[in-house]
Specification:
Number of domains of chain A: 2
CATH class of the largest domain in chain A: Alpha Beta
Largest sheet of chain A: 7 strands, parallel
Distance between the termini of chain A: 55 Å
CATH topology of chain B: Rossmann fold
Shape of chain B: globular
Number of strands of chain B: 5
Helix content of chain B: 40-55%
Oligomer: heterodimer
Number of helices of chain B: 5
Order of helices and strands of chain B: EHEHEHEHEH
Distance between the termini of chain B: 23 Å
CATH superfamily of the largest domain in chain A: P-loop containing nucleotide triphosphate hydrolases
CATH superfamily of chain B: Cobalamin-binding domain
Strand order of the largest sheet of chain A: 4-2-5-1-6-7-10
Strand content of chain B: 15-25%
Strand content of chain A: 5-15%
CATH class of chain B: Alpha Beta
Structural class of chain B: alpha/beta
Shape of chain A: globular
Helix content of chain A: 40-55%
CATH architecture of the largest domain in chain A: 3-Layer(aba) Sandwich
Structural class of chain A: alpha/beta
Largest interface: A-B, 30 and 33 residues
Number of strands of chain A: 10
């Protein structure tokens, strides 16, 4: 039996092996993913991001517990998540920029989830990627999707302001804040807060929670209600109301939820908000558009990566080094160097 | 473009709460370029074998200072074997009486590290054990 076939049969060791092969960018991993890709596209991908120490892992732990213990009651709507949802978790922690090593510690907060065969947790190191995920995270998610997990939670590295890759991968993005991390000016800056489909103030038993809620609320009130649909080359492309006419829906306003993850407070309401966003995506047709945008982002990323590596394998190292030396000597500019390397001519 | 890194699970089975040694080793392995999955305190053999499976690790490091190693280690080895992970190298660190060392090695433990072991030796031996398999 091929590795892909074993994964489809629900063999957990095969899935774990496949995740390693994909993470290591091997040909074997890629061909298995090719075989599995037709089986993907069913899972609800939930991204969880936020600053280090805001409680992302604890929140993931509670969300997974809640989803497993309180399955959604189906009301005949085929868009509803599964009755007995299988939950997979991909938790990304940073790699050292010096040694490439990493401590992956997200499982420490997820001990409540062990022993449940409907849950699969995989830790991964960012391996040099800067956007909050690793370059192969989407491949891991595809493998889990094909393996039959209905909900896949992706926890990013502790993110600051600009690590927004998760919004390109997930259907629903949770941005986790904690009291005392910033004022209302921080809250209107571009970046991570913009990508939130649901805002979470965790550690809501701490002082300053009201100020944080006010700051986030004022940010939402200042925001122009624009549907965020297309992303291209790393940026959102805002679509006007005309293009959106058939949707006939108000744009989604991110709700703010207060939680105390370690005590399980506010988790039920948060799960409801996630389900409401899932419903919203389906009812407005945004789901399909997000899927298209997600896959386009993936295609563009792979194209860039592959073009660069193909080109690089054709250029002799000596030629590359020679041009680099000319830049270092200030004989040519980096832009001139690019033209020389790509076209063989001067700028 | 393929990039392979040694993945090691560092776990503390049983009930003792002294995790400094486990953290020192985890940090040393990280500095040696390995990816260390750290699971924290009070893990059961079931939790450890489940984590080792999901994470598809090359090696498992168990830190035990409670004296329960002759119960915990065979249980972890047994469960890992049931999961089809008999090739994964298992290392034990902590307070292990000399007379237990040969018995643990016989059960399939790759190496045992007592107090005073240099982290360089641990890194080297894990590398050798993983690449030699």
């Amino acid at each position: 039996m091929t590795l892909a076939a074993s994964v489809l049969k629900g063999n957990r060791l095969a899935l774990a092996r496949l995740l390693t092969l994909v993470e290591n960018n091997t040909d074997e991993g890629r061909s298995a993913l090719n075989e599995l890709f037709p089986h993907t596209g069913k899972a609800h991908l939930i991204g969880i991001t936020g600053a280090p120490g805001t409680g992302k892992s604890s929140l993931v732990n509670q969300l997974a517990l809640h989803l497993r213990n309180n399955p959604d009651t189906p009301d005949g709507n085929s868009n509803q998540p599964d009755e007995d949802p299988w939950v997979a978790i991909v938790a990304v922690d940073p790699s050292s920029p010096f040694t490439g090593g990493a401590i992956l510690g997200d499982r420490v907060r997820m001990r409540d989830l062990s022993g449940d065969p409907g849950i699969f947790i995989r830790s991964m190191a960012s391996r040099g990627s800067l956007g909050g995920l690793a370059s192969t995270t989407s491949g891991l998610v595809q493998a889990m999707d094909a393996a039959g997990f209905n909900v896949i939670m992706i926890e990013t590295v502790g993110a600051g302001q600009a690590e927004v890759d998760i919004a390109r991968l997930a259907h629903t993005t949770l941005v986790v804040e904690a009291p005392g991390l910033g004022d209302d000016i921080q809250a209107i800056k571009a970046g991570i807060l913009e990508i939130a489909d649901v805002l979470v103030i965790n550690k809501a038993d701490r002082p300053g929670v009201d100020a944080t809620e006010r700051a986030l609320n004022s940010m939402l009130q200042l925001a122009h209600p624009v549907p965020r649909i297309f992303q291209h080359h790393g940026s959102f492309e805002y679509v006007g109301w005309e293009a959106d006419a058939e949707l006939n829906e108000l744009p989604w306003t991110p709700p703010i939820h207060k939680t105390v993850a370690i005590e399980g407070q506010g988790i039920e309401e948060l799960v409801q908000a996630i389900r409401a966003h899932y419903q919203y995506l389906h009812e407005t047709g945004s789901w399909k558009e997000r899927e298209c945008a997600r896959l386009q982002a993936e295609l563009d990323g792979l194209l860039q990566e592959t073009l660069v590596s193909r080109w690089r394998s054709r250029v002799p190292e000596t030629e590359y080094r020679r041009v680099l030396a000319e830049i270092v000597a200030r004989d040519i500019s980096p832009w001139q160097a690019v033209n020389i390397l790509l076209d063989g001519g001067a700028a | 473009m393929s990039e392979t890194r040694i993945r090691v699970l560092v776990a503390k089975p049983g009930l003792d709460g002294h995790d400094r040694g486990a953290k020192v080793v985890a940090r040393a392995l990280r500095d040696a370029g390995m990816e260390v999955i750290y699971t924290g305190l009070r893990q059961t053999a079931e939790m450890i074998s489940e984590s080792a499976l999901q994470e598809d690790v090359d090696a498992v490091g168990l830190s035990i200072l409670s004296g329960a190693h002759m119960v915990l280690v065979p249980r972890v080895l047994e469960l890992m074997k049931l999961n089809g992970q008999e090739n994964v190298k298992v290392f034990v660190g902590g307070i292990i009486p000399d007379e237990d060392v040969p018995r643990l090695l016989e059960m399939g433990v790759t190496a045992i590290y007592g107090p005073g072991t240099s982290t360089e030796d641990i890194v080297l031996e894990i590398r050798q054990a993983v690449h030699g398999k």
